[in-house]
Structures are given as structure tokens and as C-alpha cells.
């Protein structure tokens, strides 16, 4: 099972994984929870065990979200590999997400 | 908050501290509600929002600025020119949140402001914030790209403001016509309690910013378009319904700086009056302005001289050439000379500039030379209200204003009426020139002077190295003569007078001679009379003595006859 950390900054695991995401959520807000589910499904489908999701609740650490440039929730940031990718929204638009992450869309046809 | 409506309007508002805006909104923005500032690029919505926030922060209402569009560092840097001292305020009562979306951000599905608003609430509670600005909301909403989601988030924002008790200022772009072009913008207008449109136009190549309150729930407001001025201290609303003018009976006189003009006016201008000097180029308007200022400084009064398109040192130099040396008063700080470029801004913006100058320098005497520079800078009809606003400003503070008005021609009544100053001014002096016998001579006429007995005669105005002198009216054959024509006429009249005087002398001598002759004849007659009188006396005396002698002879004869006792009759 890949690691899903509710605690920010689990750097050790983050470095270990090939794909590292940080998801900023607003507590239990529907869009935020949906984004977490969608991200997990996506990672399981495409990265198998080689990923890590770091969840940051902006309600608990608002200033941190601001300093990291996160305004709306949910926001997901790919920290690794470079270059960083930033996606906002609940990730329901799967084609869009996959496209941004560099997967060929024709897989869906 | 059902009780909100029950409260008195005034309790529900927060002062923006922006001059004029609090007047036209009847007390500021709605407290705990959202106000929308919509306008095109450069219309001043960001400055207006920030200024309202800063004014609150300075007066016990800390504020948060959420910058969706610009980096906060840039906003702070831009605002540095206004002297609001943001870095100091940022330590305590002002917080900037950089919320500009990254250019590389991708939207994949719905998102919301729940997280942002929740964290803003935490920040607001922590710093005790009372006001919040979202600048500009359309940047955020354009990411949503879904009209339902846009409405949902705007509702969320509106509810959040009410629940937090924060006074919200939301800025939003719209197009030039003032009409919103996107769905959410119409909805925004509907949602907020107060909606204000700002515009930035070019009219006759002059930039012009205006503002209009479109709606204000539960409050009266001034619905007309008003002008905005972006001055040294921020934005202000410069043209709004006039406040009642300063009402005080003033009888004090202020010297015009020209002795003869003072006496023509019955002692000078009234303190606090507005004086218009109209005239064609080169009729000594500026010199008359300079005389007034010099006289004010000589009395120790602060004075302000506003010129246009001519550097201050040139104004001083030119006036020095006619014996008006303002240099020492500028050096002492008593006089401030400000040169303004006439063509860059609209009339209202100039009014804002003048008001700020009046406030910073606090003069008692104020010169605008020429006022027509401002008026001509703005061809819009609103310029017609401009002189009134200017006068309302000076009258309110009791400043004596002398302004000149440049006319293209020589006839005052033709052109000056056009700019309306003439009707508003208390005293109107017209300067003209007469071309006669190859000379151009200056003339001064007082066209009107309220509440003053004034001379109705034209005076010749002579400009020399020692300033202005007004010479006596020289009238001949129903015409006022000036220059060498006057001199020639004076000479010829003097000759005529000498001639007349000589004639009188001659006649006097003639008469004296005649008188002497009569006197002499009287003397002769009197002497003749004396001779006759003496003659008569001699005659009478001789007769008396003859009679006495006859009587004695008769008596002696009677005595010698003696026989007759009868007394002799005396009828002999």
C-alpha cells in the first residue's frame, strides 16, 4: 500500500517515492474529499506503489497554505518529479488531469 | 441578520475616509456587507479599495487585502507615492494576502473558497480585522468557468462576510461602457448591497476618471456621475453637490497691491472674495496677480500662486522685471508658487490638486493664473460647474482668490461669460488695450464689484519697472485718452488754458483801468461839489450880515424921530 500521510512534511517517505503529491484540502469539504478520492484512484491506477500523497488541511494551517501559494481548495501539487505541477479542483475531470500529468488520453478510447 | 434593517442607517455604515465618497454615499460603505467596485483598467478601483482599507486600519478597523490580481509587494510599492505608510500599518493593522493564481495552474473539476474563507476568518479573528478587500474577484471567478459555481462561491463569500461581520469591498472589471459583460458580474451587482461603477475615459485627449453609485440597498445616495481625482494622497471624489457656502458678513478689505485700484474699489477687495481679472494676452493680468500676492506677503499673510505651464522661477523672474520681487517671500516660505501642467488632466482633477495645495499651504490669499488654463483643459460640460466648486472651496475657508482669465479677444462680455466665472466672481476687473496712433495702451475697468461702491471709469494702466500705476482718467470729447495721445492732448489743453488765462488777465487789466477812470471822475466831481458847497456858504453868510445891517439902520432912524410912540412897523 502506498503511503497517504495526513501529516504534513513526511519528507523521508516523500523522497523515497517516485511520485510525490501534496493535496491541500479544506477539512471535510465535499470537493476536498472528492479530490482526495480521485487522486488516490489515479495514483493507484498509474503509479502503483511508487507514489506518496501528503495531505495538508488549510483549516489547520492556513498560513502555510498561503505561503505555498494555495488559495483555493482543493489544490494538488506534484512535488516530484520536477517540474512541479499544480492542479486545482476536485480532479473529476480525469482527462484533464491525466493530460497534465503527461499520460496519453487515447487510453480512454 | 434580520435585525440589521431595524437599525438606523448610519449605524450600518463605515466611513471610507475618502473625501467626497462619504458624502455621496451618505456615510460610507454598508457595514458587514459587500460593496462592489466595478471598472475598467486604470479606473482606480484598486486604489479606492486599498484607500478605504488603509483609512480603516488607521482608525481602529484593521483590514485584510486579498490580492488576486497583483503582487502585494507591487501594490505596496505603488501606494508608497500616496504616503499612506503601509509598511508601518502592515506590522499590526493591515495584512496582504497574495492570492494571485499561478500562471501554470490547471483547473480540473470544481473547487471552492471554503478553505480560503476559513483561513481568512482565522486571520481576521487573530488581528481583529473589520474590513476586507478582494481585488479583483473576476480573476478567481474566471478559473471556475461555470456560472453555477460562480454564483455558489459568491453566495458563499457574501454569507461569510455577514457571519464574520466583515465589511467587504470587492473589485471587479467591467468594460468601458460600464455594462458588465459576463454572467457573474450581473449576479455580483445583484448580490452586493452597494455597487459602484468607476470609469476612466479620454475626453478630448484629457484623461478623466469618474464614479457613479449604481445601487445602495436601504440608503439614499447621490446617483449622478462624479469626478475622481488621483492626487498626491490618493483618490478623492472632487465634484459632488455643493456644501452650503461659508456664510459670514465680511467687511474687511484686502489690498490689491495697487493703491489706485484699491481706491477705485472703495478700499480693496473684500476678504474672502473671488476676483476675476479678464483680458487678452499682455494686458498685465499676471502683474496684477503678482501685486496682490506681494501685498499679501508684505502684510505677513501666507499666499499661494498657482501658474500653469510656466516654471515657478520664471514666474518670479518675470514679475521681478516689473518691480514685483516675490523671491524673498518664496524663500521665507510665506509664498508658495506652484506650476501645474494644464493639459494632462481634466478640470476636476485640477480642482483636487488645488484643494490639496490649499490644505497643505493654508494661504489667506490665493492666485490662479490663469484659471482659463484649467477650464480650457476640459471641454466637457462638467467644466461649467468647476468655477462654482472652486469658489465653494475658497469661500469655505475665507481665502481671497484672485484668478485671471485669458481671453482671445479684447471684449470681456463676449468671452468671459462663456466660462461662468464672471457670474460667480464677486469682483470682475477687465484689462484691455486700445490701439491708437500706433500705440497699444493698457486700460483697466471694473466691470462689477459686489457690495462695493466702485469707480465706473476706465483707467490707464501703466506698467513700469516699479510695478503698476493707474493714471487719471483723461477724457476729451467723450473719449478716454491714453499713452502719447493723452500726453499730446494734455499739452494742447494746457496751451489752450494758458491762452485763456492770458485773456482773462488782459480783461482784468482793462477793467481795472475802467475802474480807475471812474474813481478819478468821482474824485473830480467830489472836489467840484466841495467848491460849490463853499460858494453857497459864502453867499448865505453875506446875506445874513446885510440883513442885520439894514435892521440897525432902521432902529437908529426911528430913535432920532422920537415923536412917535408907536413902534415902527417892521414891514419896511
Automatic annotation (TrEMBL), chain A:
Matching InterPro entries: KaiB-like, KaiB_domain, Thioredoxin-like_sf
Source organism of this protein record: Candidatus Propionivibrio dominans
KaiB domain ranges (all copies): 22-103
Domain of life: Bacteria
Pfam family, one: KaiB
Lineage start: Bacteria, Pseudomonadati, Pseudomonadota, Betaproteobacteria, Rhodocyclales
GO biological process annotation, one example: rhythmic process
Protein name: Circadian clock KaiB family protein
PANTHER family: CIRCADIAN CLOCK PROTEIN KAIB2, KAIB-LIKE PROTEIN 1
Matches recorded under CDD domains: KaiB_like
From TrEMBL, chain B:
KaiC domain ranges (all copies): 12-256, 257-484
SMART domains: AAA
GO molecular function: ATP binding; hydrolase activity; protein serine/threonine kinase activity
Enzyme class: transferase
A Pfam entry, by short name: ATPase
E.C. numbers: 2.7.11.1
Keyword list, A-Z: Hydrolase, Kinase, Phosphoprotein, Repeat, Transferase
Stored PROSITE patterns: KAIC
NCBIfam families xrefs: PRK09302.1 (NF006799)
Domain of life, per lineage: Bacteria
Keyword Transferase: yes
Name this protein carries in UniProt: non-specific serine/threonine protein kinase
Keyword Ribosomal protein attached: no
Disordered, as annotated region: 553-572
Amino acid at each position: 500500500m502506498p503511503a497517504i500521510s495526513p501529516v504534513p512534511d513526511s519528507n523521508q517517505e516523500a523522497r523515497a517515492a517516485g511520485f510525490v503529491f501534496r493535496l491541500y484540502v479544506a477539512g471535510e469539504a465535499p470537493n476536498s474529499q472528492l479530490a482526495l478520492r480521485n487522486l488516490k484512484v489515479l495514483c493507484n491506477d498509474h503509479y502503483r506503489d511508487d507514489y506518496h500523497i501528503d495531505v495538508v488541511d488549510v483549516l489547520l494551517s492556513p498560513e502555510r497554505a498561503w505561503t505555498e501559494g494555495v488559495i483555493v481548495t482543493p489544490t494538488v501539487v506534484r512535488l516530484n518529479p520536477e517540474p512541479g505541477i499544480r492542479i486545482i479542483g476536485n480532479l473529476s475531470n480525469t482527462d484533464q488531469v491525466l493530460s497534465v500529468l503527461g499520460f496519453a488520453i487515447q487510453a480512454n478510447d | 441578520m434580520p435585525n440589521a434593517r431595524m437599525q438606523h442607517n448610519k449605524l450600518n455604515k463605515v466611513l471610507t475616509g475618502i473625501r467626497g465618497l462619504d458624502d455621496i454615499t451618505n456615510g460610507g460603505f454598508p457595514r458587514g456587507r459587500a460593496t462592489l467596485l466595478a471598472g475598467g483598467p486604470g479606473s482606480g478601483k484598486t486604489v479606492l479599495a486599498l484607500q478605504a482599507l488603509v483609512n480603516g486600519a488607521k482608525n481602529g478597523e484593521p483590514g485584510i487585502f486579498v490580492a488576486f490580481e497583483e503582487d502585494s509587494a507591487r501594490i505596496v510599492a505603488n501606494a508608497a507615492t500616496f504616503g499612506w505608510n503601509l509598511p508601518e500599518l502592515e506590522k499590526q493593522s493591515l495584512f496582504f494576502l497574495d492570492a494571485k493564481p499561478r500562471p501554470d495552474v490547471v483547473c480540473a473539476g470544481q473547487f471552492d473558497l471554503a478553505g480560503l474563507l476559513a483561513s481568512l476568518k482565522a486571520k481576521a479573528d487573530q488581528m481583529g480585522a473589520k474590513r476586507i478587500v478582494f481585488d479583483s474577484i473576476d480573476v478567481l471567478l474566471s478559473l471556475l468557468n461555470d456560472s453555477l459555481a460562480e454564483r455558489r462561491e459568491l453566495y458563499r463569500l457574501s454569507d461569510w462576510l455577514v457571519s464574520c461581520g466583515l465589511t467587504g469591498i470587492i473589485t471587479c472589471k467591467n468594460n468601458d461602457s460600464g455594462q458588465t459583460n459576463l454572467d457573474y458580474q450581473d449576479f455580483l451587482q445583484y448580490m452586493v448591497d452597494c455597487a459602484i461603477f468607476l470609469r476612466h475615459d479620454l475626453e478630448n485627449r484629457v484623461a478623466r476618471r469618474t464614479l457613479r453609485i449604481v445601487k445602495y440597498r436601504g440608503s439614499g445616495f447621490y446617483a449622478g456621475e462624479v469626478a475622481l481625482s488621483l492626487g498626491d494622497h490618493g483618490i478623492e471624489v472632487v465634484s459632488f453637490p455643493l456644501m452650503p457656502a461659508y456664510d459670514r458678513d465680511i467687511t474687511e478689505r484686502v489690498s490689491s497691491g495697487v493703491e489706485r485700484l484699491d481706491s477705485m474699489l472703495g478700499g480693496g477687495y473684500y476678504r474672502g472674495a473671488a476676483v476675476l481679472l479678464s483680458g487678452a494676452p499682455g494686458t498685465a493680468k499676471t502683474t496684477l496677480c503678482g501685486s496682490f500676492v506681494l501685498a499679501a506677503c508684505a502684510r505677513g499673510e501666507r499666499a499661494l500662486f498657482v501658474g500653469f505651464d510656466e516654471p515657478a522661477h520664471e514666474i518670479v523672474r518675470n514679475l521681478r522685471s516689473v518691480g514685483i520681487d516675490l523671491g524673498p517671500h518664496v524663500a521665507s516660505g510665506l509664498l508658495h508658487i506652484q506650476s501645474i501642467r494644464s493639459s494632462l488632466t481634466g478640470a476636476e482633477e485640477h480642482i483636487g490638486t488645488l484643494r490639496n495645495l490649499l490644505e497643505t499651504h493654508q494661504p489667506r490669499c490665493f492666485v490662479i493664473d490663469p484659471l482659463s488654463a484649467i477650464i480650457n483643459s476640459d471641454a466637457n460640460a462638467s467644466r461649467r460647474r468647476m468655477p462654482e466648486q472652486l469658489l465653494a472651496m475658497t469661500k469655505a475657508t475665507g481665502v481671497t482668490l484672485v484668478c485671471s482669465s485669458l481671453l482671445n479677444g479684447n471684449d470681456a462680455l463676449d468671452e468671459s461669460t462663456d466660462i461662468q466665472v464672471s457670474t460667480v466672481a464677486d469682483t470682475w476687473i477687465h484689462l484691455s488695450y486700445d490701439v491708437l496712433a500706433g500705440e497699444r495702451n493698457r486700460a483697466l475697468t471694473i466691470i462689477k464689484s459686489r457690495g462695493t461702491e466702485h469707480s465706473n471709469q476706465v483707467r490707464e494702466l501703466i506698467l513700469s519697472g516699479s510695478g503698476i500705476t493707474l493714471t487719471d482718467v483723461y477724457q476729451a470729447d467723450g473719449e478716454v485718452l491714453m499713452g502719447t495721445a493723452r500726453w499730446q492732448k494734455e499739452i494742447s489743453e494746457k496751451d489752450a488754458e494758458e491762452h485763456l488765462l492770458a485773456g482773462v488777465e488782459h480783461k482784468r487789466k482793462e477793467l481795472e483801468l475802467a475802474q480807475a477812470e471812474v474813481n478819478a471822475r468821482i474824485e473830480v466831481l467830489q472836489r467840484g461839489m466841495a467848491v460849490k458847497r463853499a460858494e453857497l456858504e459864502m453867499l448865505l453868510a453875506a446875506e445874513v450880515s446885510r440883513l442885520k445891517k439894514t435892521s440897525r439902520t432902521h432902529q437908529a432912524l426911528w430913535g432920532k424921530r422920537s415923536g412917535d410912540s408907536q413902534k415902527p412897523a417892521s414891514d419896511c
